[in-house]
Fold this sequence. Notes:
Elements: E1 7-17, H1 22-25, E2 27-33, E3 45-50, E4 61-64, E5 67-68, E6 72-78, H2 82-87, E7 95-102, E8 114-119, H3 124-132, E9 139-145, E10 162-167, H4 171-186, E11 192-196, H5 199-211, E12 215-219, E13 235-237, E14 243-245, H6 246-249, E15 252-254
Helix pairs in contact: 4-5
Amino acid sequence: MGNYDACRDVSILSVEPVGPEGAAKGCYMLTLANPGFSPAVAGQFVMVRPRAFQQNPVWPRPFSICRLTAEALTLFVQVCGRGTEILCRLVPGDTATVWGPLGQGFALEPEVPTVMLAGGVGIAPFVEYAAGHPSPEHLSLVFGHRLPLSCYPFDAFSGLKSAEAFQEKGPDDLAAFIAHLETTIAGHADGLVLACGPRPFLVTVARLARKYSVRAQVSLENRMACGVGGCLGCVEKNVLGSYVQTCTQGPVFWVEELALSEES
């Protein structure tokens, strides 16, 4: 699924740090004018290249759709390099080229108990997922993070069945979080598990989903340059030993499709 014709120059509406510590920790909400997108499927992504990139960096940056309304496209951006640093220095009225929505989004099964497992910046697509879910009483969230909770859009999940947050401050916290993930996934044998976050997090989720025979999808954060299947920079090995393109065939995959490992 993808709309490759929707390549538009749009205005930046706002760039705001998330919470009182967002600026210091590099966590921002970047809001752009809606490029003309019709409703997207939560889990799809967009490619963004502001004019401020000029020729360095060359490539655009991919971001999950955090929120899409008729007026605006909002992205959750954590500064992690030159590209995201430039993006978070933009001001209202600056211009960026955007194309999308791209890729395959998360499954939506309104009457099925669904748990969203998010790690760090992987919380972004679940903001849109929760906002558009017709039965939020069937939704729950487990969120693992390292920065202060106020740096993330956690308040967006107040209307769900449950929303839990776990901050990792040391090795013991990580072990406890993984144990909680196992309990959560084991308790969703008749439900649906959706996950987005760092690769080690997704590998753990996939392992536990297989162990307890739980239907699960993971959204990969593989590096990509074009977002439309041209550069082959985002390929992922599947269970047949061949490769799939994360941008066009993902970024959301059913766990049983992938030979997911710690190696990228």
